[in-house]
Hints:
Blueprint: H1 3-27, H2 35-40, H3 44-60, H4 64-85, E1 98-105, H5 113-122, E2 129-133, H6 139-143, E3 152-156, E4 164-168, E5 174-180, E6 185-194, E7 197-204, H7 212-227, E8 236-242, H8 253-258, E9 262-263, E10 288-292, E11 296-303, E12 314-320
Parallel strand pairs: 1-2, 7-8
Antiparallel strand pairs: 1-12, 2-4, 3-4, 5-6, 6-7, 8-10, 9-10, 11-12
Helix pairs in contact: 1-3, 1-4, 3-4
Amino acid sequence: MDRDSLKQFLAPRLVALTLMLALVSALTLAGRWHWLADLSSHFVPHYAAAGVLLLIGLVWSRRYRWAVLAMLLVAGNGYRLLPYLWPDRAVAISEAPRIEILQFNVSFENPAPGTVIDYIRSLDTPPDAVILLETTPIWGAYLKTLKDIYPTIALMPRSDNFGMAVLSRLPQSDVDFRESGTPPVPLMVLEAGVADQHLLIYATHPPPPLGALLSAGRNAQLAALASEITPQMPQHVIVAGDLNSTVWSEALAPLIHRAGLRDSQRGRGYLPTWAPLPLWRWLGVPIDHTLVSDNVTVVDRSAGPRLGSDHWPVLTTLSLR
Length: 321
């Protein structure tokens, strides 16, 4: 097949794919009305990357009018991704107290809990708080071996996907577990004093948005959590966990717009935290969040190694202004 024949073969297919991309990109804006539309919103970076490839193909095949549409799709999806690629200008105050939080959905089917314990011990400085999700009863014995590092170890194990464990070496740590949502899943509240600052850490793991009922349950739980938080709260507030949502989803809107929290990943690049297979890392999506109130500055955020889960551990360093 010569070049002209190849162009004739590819051109209509590229046009069809561009129309499909336009449709699904528009669908992402309708998430508040249907769970499938909301599900499509998690893949904004993928749509931007697909638009770039289609733009190149359409220009090469001389379908310039359709290339304009592809360029608009790249611009529209890229604009929503831009806050994560544009450097964050927030500056941490040098004398303000700092804390580090490790959060990790360990997977309730994790075959090697010991590797997670070894990873925590291998860190140069132990995180001040560790939030582990999907912990089953077997995790209790492993986590208690960290008692020499973490005076506070609170466990709420379950045999399904919604167990939780919290380890803290923050002073004056007080952990409260309760269940919320439908189906009911744990919500953890950790109160601690850091220097003269009052810290509130919420951790949760709402249901995945697989179907109308589970999506509604996820949305209701995150909205209920947002109702407990206001931008005027004097405490330093952090919400951490596998929220089964990206920031482009309507599910996180109450926490970001109503509660006044911001995503710690902004300005630090695109960091997928969940993918079904290790080799699919950059096809994954960022659903493991650390949301912070306005009086908290993000110093650093990074992902750890793969440790027997379909998620990656996330380390976030924060400055309490």
